[in-house]
Specification:
The complex is a heterodimer of chains A (112) and B (114). Chain A is built from no helices and 11 strands. By secondary structure, chain A is mainly β. In chain A, a hairpin with a 5-residue loop joins strand 7 and strand 8. The N and C termini of chain A lie far apart (41 Å). The model of chain A has no long low-confidence stretch (mean pLDDT 96). Chain B has 114 residues and is mostly beta strands. The model of chain B has no long low-confidence stretch (mean pLDDT 95). The chains are: A mainly beta (112), B mainly beta (114). Chains A and B meet through strand 5 and strand 9 of A and strand 5 and strand 10 of B.
Amino acid sequence: GQQVMQIPQYQHVQEGEDFTTYCNSSTTLSNIQWYKQRPGGHPVFLIQLVKSGEVKKQKRLTFQFGEAKKNSSLHITATQTTDVGTYFCAGPSAGNNRKLIWGLGTSLAVNP
Amino acid sequence: NAGVTQTPKFRVLKTGQSMTLLCAQDMNHEYMYWYRQDPGMGLRLIHYSVGEGTTAKGEVPDGYNVSRLKKQNFLLGLESAAPSQTSVYFCASSYWLKEDYEQYFGPGTRLTVT
């Protein structure tokens, strides 16, 4: 079945280091979304990418959607302790676009 | 606007007991979802609804039932709780427009079944 895979599963960085998480889909996606979940919290929408090769920035966060629309990445420049949490990518189900297929997430820990 | 709210926030059940989790949204969203989240397993879809009066199974529906009698409410029922249903349950809602798929999540219900 359709799958969305994320790597790495965990990442520990020193504050100020960069961080990247990668998302790979088994199928072409019409769009991809990224969410952040703080420890003890709920997932919160960050961004949606729709176009092939699209790059969007939110302050220190850079999101990319691959040319084939099967992969995506989230890059954080100069991590801060406020970046701690789990980052999920998700894409619409191919068979029924009213569901999202979720990656398992990348948990980021930042040492001050 | 309150967004998506869930009640209760915490609950402890004994094996075999039943309970209903309530999700309410005030954004007039057509689509609503129930997920469970367990360590290392991400978000798994239990059931979802594409409109008032309609429900559908997700990837882990066994042991759960749902109802969507009103557009703003989505109820998740556990008829006979089992320890394997110990989890954090999230409700989410969304439009599903051509360019807008964002899901809005509630704060979650932390359920322990002993």
